[in-house]
Amino acid sequence: MIAPSKTHSQLDRNEARWFAVYTRYKREKLVRDQLAEKQIETYLPLQKLTRTYTRKVRTVQLPLISCYVFVRITRDQYVRVLETADVVQFVRFGKELIAIPDREIELMQRVVGEMQGIEAEPLTFLEGDEVEILGGQLTGIRGTLLKKRSEKNFVIELHGVGYALHMHVDPARLRKVRPLGASS
Length: 184
Description:
Blueprint: E1 17-23, H1 28-37, E2 41-43, E3 46-52, E4 57-63, E5 68-73, H2 78-82, E6 87-90, H3 102-114, E7 130-133, E8 142-150, E9 153-158, E10 164-168, E11 174-178
Antiparallel strand pairs: 1-5, 1-6, 2-5, 3-4, 7-8, 7-11, 8-9, 9-10
């Protein structure tokens, strides 16, 4: 992942990068089509599901992640995306716009194309997880999650400092570096 501490926004003037945008509920396909009309590269991971109704069985394609569409854009295309009907906002970490690595989009494309019955859910943090802070003044700091006191109150031991800091950290600003029990 590109280091978020180097810039406030990872939009680049020349290099197109992947970003996620929030859409209005059940408007993902419509947003994808509108962005395609504007010549903006999009990716909407869809999964085939079989639905059984009272009188019929129907196969539908539903978004893997509700209210998300991925766009590959340069800085000049940013406003055009925001001006698209039913786009709510870009997904951010705090105030910072963070690019999604190409390999993560490619992995999602491979998995969604191969398998059925996939579910997407937000990551949960467990005691012992190695984490990195992705937003704010502490961006880039890594530590070990010692305790999870509540949904937004974590005790993180900072490596090399020798102290455990009690801090309120929004889970959207944390990224797992190494899960509990994973080898280095």
